[in-house]
Amino acid sequence: MFLEIGVQLQEESTCRIEAIKRFNTSCNICCKKNLPFDCDKCPIATAHKTVLEVFKYCEELRKEKLSS
After folding, report:
1. Which regions of the chain are under pLDDT 50?
2. Exposure class string for 33-48: b at 16+ Cβ within 10 A, else e
3. In angstroms, what CA-CA distances link 27 with 3, 22, 67?
């Protein structure tokens, strides 16, 4: 359930900063509770990377639109 909620929070993030804060919170909880998840295979980390790429792409589109 923890992983599903973490992924959902990433997907619902409205900006890059919010996604980063939510990811850091998830990581802190996981580490402090000694949860048995492999960081390299973490679905929250995968969702986080995807969300950040989407925000980056949107920012590039916005800049491109402003310059044209």
Report:
1. none
2. eeeebeeeebebbebb
3. 11, 9, 38
